[in-house]
DNA sequence: CAGTGGTCTAGACCACCAC
DNA sequence: TGGTGGTCTAGACCACTGG
């Protein structure tokens, strides 16, 4: 049995997108088993009443996601291994929520401060000019998990503490109409200072996982600089990445 | 002055690829400055004697790389910020070489061992079945930087110690015709055990950066499982990531 | 050899944005 | 309202893979 596929031409959803969604659902659901051939593009196009380029566009989007592999002279196959998350720019909040960890946030600092040299360089503003500073403690199951320190340019966002505790910073930025484009990250480790240890209920010198991240919108503006520390017994960075062909 | 663009129809290189390379070079070189408009697709196609879909394909590949941004009703712009490396599946060897660090490698273990439960699960083989084990110490400027422990299925690769010291494992796999597809990574931190401390010239309990990675080829086979420790004063993970639109 | 994906064309209509 | 990218069509030829 080939597979149930159909498109709705009266829908405002692009045809290639309708098709790619159905294919992705079929893969997720198991109707399309790993390693199985997808059938050639011409026949697929004819069956759906679409042109070949449209079908190709649908297939290409899934190839880009790593779900399909194309081989010349062979066909298009469903990838065997379990591809799930191609490393998104996700907030820790979303990650925890998805893992069912019931995240809690305490906003410890929410004020306007002069930019340090490091912050100024990251955000592309003048040193000592005013920027927002947000420090948050993230807890899971009542235990401290991470200390998040963020700096943002002024006038970009309404930074309400209550809202920051109810949702993630990234979600707030997206809601405010900011189009996130890229981020530069650095992940490292170091021993906890006395201050860091106290915040995270660790002892001085305990290994901590650290991340620094500068996020840019699609105009190239830096919209956020974060300097975070994580308890490595409670958190690690897990992600999947695809090889660029 | 608009920009010098031309394609060679007698070349076996695809036209869209020729164009995207020229555009990328122009961005890199500074002929196309950040924020500048690219000119509309129709006119660009006419100027080059190409069809619009071909020009779109060239532009799209650079949008996927994060170098360009398209806006409906506005045009295609060069991204402001510095986008460089979209997180490749690069080997530590290549990273160091690119940074001019003259990496050196000592192969400490190169043998066949029975798979532990963890290794067996990662590689998808039976527990206690034979697998390759490669342990390497990576040095930069004569100082230990990382201890790399890898497990590979048998019969995949000819694992010559001399070659392993002269180049990276990933480069050897690519040379052997293995098409890398995706990898699952986990980055964390912990205190060094006595053994780890000795290997890396640290003291027991010193913070270490850790990474575990399973790499898959395009048929879904696991081709490598690595369990690595890094001295955080000498190495951190730096990368750029793009937001999927 | 037959079949597949890879590339390319010359049009077309629509949705969105700035003015 | 004019210009932009977003989508779509119905073909075509080529390069590579497998038997």
From TrEMBL, chains A, B:
Lyase recorded as keyword: no
Keyword Transcription regulation: yes
Cited SMART domains: HTH_GNTR (SM00345), UTRA (SM00866)
Alphabetical keyword list: DNA-binding, Transcription, Transcription regulation
InterPro entries to which the protein is assigned, alphabetical: Bact_HTH_transcr_reg, Chorismate_lyase_/UTRA_dom_sf, Tscrpt_reg_HTH_GntR, UTRA, WH-like_DNA-bd_sf, WH_DNA-bd_sf
Domain of life where this protein originates: Bacteria
Classification via Pfam families: GntR, UTRA
Domain HTH gntR-type: 13-81
Official protein name in the record: GntR family transcriptional regulator
């Amino acid at each position: 049995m080939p597979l149930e596929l159909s498109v709705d031409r009266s829908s405002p959803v692009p045809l290639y997108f309708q098709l790619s969604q159905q294919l992705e659902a079929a893969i997720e659901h198991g109707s399309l088993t790993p390693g199985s051939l997808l059938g050639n593009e011409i026949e697929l196009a004819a069956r759906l009443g679409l042109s070949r380029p449209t079908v190709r566009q649908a297939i290409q989007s899934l190839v880009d996601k790593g779900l399909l592999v194309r081989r010349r002279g062979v066909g298009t196959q469903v990838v065997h291994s379990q591809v799930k998350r191609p490393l998104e720019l996700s907030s820790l909040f979303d990650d925890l929520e998805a893992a069912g960890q019931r995240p809690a946030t305490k906003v410890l600092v929410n004020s306007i401060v002069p930019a340090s040299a490091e912050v100024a360089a990251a955000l592309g503003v003048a040193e000592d000019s005013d920027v927002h500073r947000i420090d948050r403690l993230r807890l899971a199951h009542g235990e401290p998990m991470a200390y998040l320190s963020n700096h943002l340019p002024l006038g970009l966002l309404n930074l309400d503490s209550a809202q920051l505790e109810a949702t993630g910073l990234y979600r707030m930025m997206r809601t405010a109409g900011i189009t996130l484009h890229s981020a530069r990250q650095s992940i490292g480790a170091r021993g906890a200072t006395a201050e860091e240890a106290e915040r995270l209920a660790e002892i001085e010198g305990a290994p901590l996982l650290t991340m620094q991240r500068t996020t840019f919108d699609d105009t190239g503006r830096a919209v956020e600089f974060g300097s975070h520390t994580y308890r490595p017994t409670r958190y690690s960075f897990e992600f999947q990445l695809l090889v660029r062909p």
